[in-house]
Amino acid sequence: VVSFVILLAGMYLIHRKQTVGKSGREILAVVAYGLVLSAMTAGAITYCVQQRDFGSLLTAAGAVGFFVSDNILIWLLSGYESRLQGAVLLLFYYGGVFLIAAGQVVG
Description:
Layout: H1 2-15, H2 24-51, H3 54-77, H4 83-106
Helix pairs in contact: 1-2, 2-3, 3-4
């Protein structure tokens, strides 16, 4: 629960300026996706802490990478675009997906 609250609060602090002037439906979509993404990442971290094995560690690291990549993607979709951000986005996204898959194979 603590990791979920921390992740969700972090997303809010990072993206709160991007919701200014948006419609209620757009804000609801961002909040709903933030809840789902934070819950998924917090679940992977909690599972890793409980299991304490290498597979769950890889999965949790991948979930954090995916969390970071999706937050970068929100920035890119809001108009803050650069080549470096695109490269970092792909690094975190594909790295996260690879680690999640590797964690499932190893675990």
